[in-house]
Backbone:
């Protein structure tokens, strides 16, 4: 088949409980669902575009016990965070290579909702897959959901993959 | 590959401008997108579940010039409407057979939002594809969108395929 592969963007992030380099339950689920239900054995007809957004405030929060004495300390911190993000992407890229599906992976800093919609406009995937923690209405008020924002604002078709009940931690916000 | 095919439910409806047996621009687009971007050449790994909901009021509206003199007249009308729905499904089923992808198609009467969500619970597809007319906020108030309801309430992943600008009629509600 000579036509261009279907380009599927998958938004991936780290676990809020375990941190880097662990992928969140919901983004791992969205990734695995895409391989199992869409790509299947047809690996040559798909290309996965793996986007990881590093949330800056969240990363900064890990560093409350750090002491910064020089400009270099901040540079080291930034490099360390970048390395953490790379380990996360490595997990997904390795899986793609194992099964033989083409992929590209990259990191952006910022608010995931804005970054994802911006990257959709920039790279023009055929569709976007995002995981969802499946929060109830009460939890959504405080946590917000990236997936809902993408469904409304991303300029491409979006498919939201919810975690199944047995995959969810006791507090659904832990992912 | 011995595993079960991916079961994709596609909601199809007739054109509001042309009526039966013409498929709406948006449901034809959703169907063709699914074949082109998801199924591709891998026809044996997918099964399409084509659901057409007949809106009862809308169909009744076509019959304002009819005269009913006996119970049989109503039966004939119902049979005619059913036949119209069958012609619509025939269009989609023929396309599936042409390219060699398995399918099942059926008709339900009622409100599309409720029927689609009910059928999702009943047949448990891997995901649901719905077309969207891409209405603006003003038009949505009066017309409502089936796709938005499905995204919120259907108990499976949902992908909404919007019509492209060049496919849209002058009045986006005509589809």
Residues:
């Amino acid at each position: 088949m000579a036509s261009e592969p279907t380009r599927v963007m998958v938004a991936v992030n780290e676990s809020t409980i375990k941190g880097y380099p662990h992928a969140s339950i919901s983004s791992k689920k969205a990734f695995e669902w895409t391989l199992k239900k869409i790509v299947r054995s047809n690996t040559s007809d798909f290309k996965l575009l793996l986007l990881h957004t590093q949330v800056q405030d969240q990363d900064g929060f890990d560093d409350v016990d750090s002491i910064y004495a020089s400009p270099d300390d901040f540079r080291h911190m930034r490099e360390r965070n970048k390395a953490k993000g790379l380990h996360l992407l490595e997990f997904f890229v390795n899986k793609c290579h194992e099964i033989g599906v083409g992929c590209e992976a990259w990191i952006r800093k910022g608010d995931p909702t804005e970054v994802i919609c911006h990257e959709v406009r920039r790279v023009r995937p055929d569709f976007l897959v995002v995981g969802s923690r499946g929060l109830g209405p009460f939890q959504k008020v405080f946590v917000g959901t990236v997936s809902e924002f993408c469904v409304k604002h991303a300029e491409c078709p979006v498919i939201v993959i919810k975690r199944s009940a047995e995959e969810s931690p006791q507090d659904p916000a832990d992912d």
Notes: Chain A touches chain B through 18 residues (CB under 8 Å).
